[in-house]
Amino acid sequence: MVIKDTGLNGKEALLADMDTYMHDTGFVRWAWDYLHATYDYKLVEKGVTYYLRIQAHAIEGRLEDSHALLRLEEPFIGKHLFPHGVDYDAVIPDNVLKNAKGALKTLGDKLANH
């Protein structure tokens, strides 16, 4: 499920700054290669795990360089499937979505003050 109207789509920051803002908000950069990264925020509700994800693409430089310029895409959220995988079409409980939007607002505030 894509979460629209967050104000994050198209936001840009240097990798070092983006990593700091993401980390301070609770996101972890798990999957990455030289040109893109995926930041994950884990939410657990009643024993079920959900992942809020934001993809970032290097528009200048590569992710091996802390001065690479990244641009964010729309965030999306899905339900974790055991043992691996994420269902992005799953129904997301209101409380989980509310918490996800709160994290996105916090991140947006950090990027706005950048």
UniProtKB/TrEMBL annotation:
InterPro entries, per the entry: Uncharacterised_YugN-like (IPR014967), YugN-like_sf (IPR036491)
Domain of life of the source = Bacteria
**Pfam families the UniProt entry points to:** YugN (PF08868)
Q: Which Gene3D superfamilies match?
A: YugN-like
Return the protein name.
Answer: YugN-like family protein
